[in-house]
C-alpha cells in the first residue's frame, strides 16, 4: 500500500483545465469528466448493464466485510483520484477501495491523494481504450496497488498489480468460468466470479 503523498507540481498556479472540467460537470450532470495526461475527457452516461456489473462486483467486496463500519477500508463509487501525471490531472474511477481515513487525504477539486487508494476498478463503456491503455499508465504512475478492469467488449476481467512508472508489472486476464482473485492487501480475501460479472454487464436484449 503506498504511503507517500502525491507530488503536486504547480499546485498554486491557475488551473484552466480544471475550471473547464468543472464547467462541463455542471452543464452535463451524470457525465464523467476527467483530465488524463493533460487531456480533458468526457464520458457519456453509463447504461444499465454497466451499473449492473458494478453492483455485481461490489457484492462480494461487501460480503467480505469491507466497508462495514469496523473495516479499515471503505468501498466507494465515483470518488475523485488526484493523479501525478500533470498539475491538473485527475480521474474518477467507477469503484475504489480506500483507507477508512480517506477524508484526511483530500487534495483539491474533490479529489483525494492516491496514497489512500488500495484498488481502483473501471467497467468499460464506449471509452474502453481509455480504461485499457491510458488509465493503466496513469494509475500505475499514481502507484495504485491494484487496478481491475471489467472489459465488457471482450468479456474478460483484468487484474493489474505491482505498479511501475510505465504500467503494471503483473497483468492477469480472467475469462468466464474463472475466479479472479484480488490481493489480500485490499483488506480481505476476495475473488470475483467473472461469469457473473460479464453476464451482468452484457446487453439484456
Coarse morphology: globular
The order of strands across the largest sheet is 3-6-9-10-11-12
Low-confidence stretches: 1-5
Q: Write the H/E string, N to C.
A: HEEHEEEEEEEHEEEEEH
How far apart the termini lie comes to: 41 Å
Structural class of the helices, strands and pairings? Answer: alpha+beta
How many strands in all?
A: 14
If you average the pLDDT, what whole number results? 91
- Radius of gyration of CA atoms, rounded to a whole number: 16 Å
What is the CATH level 1 assignment? Answer: Alpha Beta
The CATH H-level superfamily is tt1808, chain A
Largest sheet: 6 strands, mixed
Quaternary status of these chains? single chain
Number of helices: 4
The CATH topology assignment is tt1808, chain A
The residue fraction in helices comes out at 10-25%
Strand fraction: 25-35%
Q: In the CATH classification, which architecture applies?
A: Alpha-Beta Complex
If you had to describe this structure to a student in words, what would you say it looks like?
With 205 residues, the protein is of the alpha+beta class. It has one domain: tt1808, chain A (Alpha-Beta Complex), CATH 3.90.1570. The chain is 24% helix and 33% strand. It is built from 4 helices and 14 strands. The strands form 4 sheets. The chain has a 6-stranded mixed β-sheet with strand order 3-6-9-10-11-12. Strand 13 and strand 14 form a beta hairpin. The longest helix has 16 residues. The N and C termini lie far apart (41 Å).
Write the layout of secondary structure elements.
Elements: H1 16-27, E1 32-36, E2 39-43, H2 48-63, E3 73-77, E4 80-82, E5 90-91, E6 95-99, E7 106-108, E8 111-112, E9 117-123, H3 128-141, E10 146-151, E11 156-164, E12 167-174, E13 179-182, E14 190-193, H4 194-201
Parallel strand pairs: 4-8, 9-10
Antiparallel strand pairs: 1-2, 3-6, 4-5, 6-9, 7-8, 10-11, 11-12, 13-14
